[in-house]
Amino acid sequence: MPGHRYRPPAKAQPRRRRWARSATAVLGTAVLAFTGCTSTSSPTTDTTWNHIDLEPGVSVDVPVGWMVAASNLTPNLSHPLEVFSAGTFELRRGGDCAQIPPRALSDMGSSDVFVSLQEATPRPAPERTTFTSASGLGKGELEFVDCLTDDDVRDIGRLRWIAFAEHDRSFYLLVAIGVDAAGDRVEDVWALANGIEVAAAEPGMSVDPSANGTTP
Questions:
Q1: Residue 150, Cβ density class (10 Å: 0-12 exposed, 13-18 middle, ≥19 buried)
Q2: What distance in Å separates the CA atoms of residue 172 and residue 136, rounded to the nearest whole number?
Q3: How confident is the model at residue 205 (pLDDT cuts 50, 70, 90)?
Q4: Is residue 48 part of a domain?
Q5: Given this model, what pLDDT does residue 111 score?
Q6: Are 89 and 112 in contact (CB under 8 A)?
Q7: pTM of the predicted model, to two decimals?
C-alpha cells in the first residue's frame, strides 16, 4: 500500500478572522474553532491566520508570524509520522529522543508556544472533542520529559500530550506553552489545535512503516 512521507506545508493562504480573546469563547465553543466563524458578544481582536494544506486530508490555520517547520523535526521517528509543527520561535530539527523534537523544545523560550501533530496507525483512542489545557497527559505524566534539561522543563510551564481519533484515523497532539507566554498566545495555541481539520483517509493510504517501507 502506498504510504506518505513528511510533506512540507503548501503555500499558505491568508485568512482574516475574528477570534474570541476570551478563554470561554475559544476553549468552550467548538464551533468557533472548527469553522473559524465568530458569534460572540465578548471583546474580540482581529487576527490574521494562514490556511495550510498538509498531508492528504489534514489542514490547519496558523497565526501569521508563527514559524512552520519546513522539514520533519523528529527525523529519527519512523512511527508515528510527524504531520505538522509550528511555534513562535525558530524551529530546529533533531535531538537525542525520537518521539519528540527535543532540540525545538530546548530552543523554546519561556514566552513561546509550540504545537506538533503526529499520525499513527489506527488504534483505540478517545474520539476528538474540544482540546483544552486539561486534555491528554500533562508534564508530570510523560516519560519523554527526561529528554529535556531541567531548564527546558522550567521554561515549559504546560506540556500536553493528547491522543485522539477522528474519521478512523489516530493522532497525537503535542502542545507546549511557555511559563511566561502571554494570554493571547495561549488562546491562539488552543484555537489552532481546535481548528485542525481532518478528513477520512484516502483509499490505500497507510502510516504503518512496515506496510509501506517509508520513514518521515
A1: exposed
A2: 9
A3: low
A4: yes
A5: 97
A6: yes
A7: 0.75
Backbone angles phi, psi at 109, to 5 degrees: -85, 170
- Render pLDDT for 144-184 as a digit per residue (tens, 0 to 9): 888 888 898 889 999 999 999 999 999 999 999 999 999 99
- How many independent structural domains does the chain possess? 1
Q: Which three cell numbers stand for residue 29?
A: 465553543
Residue 129 lies in a domain: yes
The position carrying cell 493522532 is 171
Assigned domain for 31 exists: yes
The helix or strand, by DSSP H or E, that contains position 150, with its residue range, turns out to be: helix 150-155
Write out the residue range of the structural domain in which residue 110 sits: 13-204
Nearest Cα neighbor of 194 from 43, 17, 70, 74 is 17
Residue 115, beta-bridge partner list: 86, 175
- The Cα–Cα gap between 86 and 91 comes to 8
Q: How many residues does the chain have?
A: 216
Report CA-CA distances (Å) from 96 to 67, 76, 144.
Answer: 22, 9, 11
Distance CA 200, CA 185 (A): 30
207 vs 213: CA distance, rounded Å: 10
Q: Is residue 88, in this structure, part of any structural domain at all?
A: yes
- What is the three-class DSSP state of 16? strand
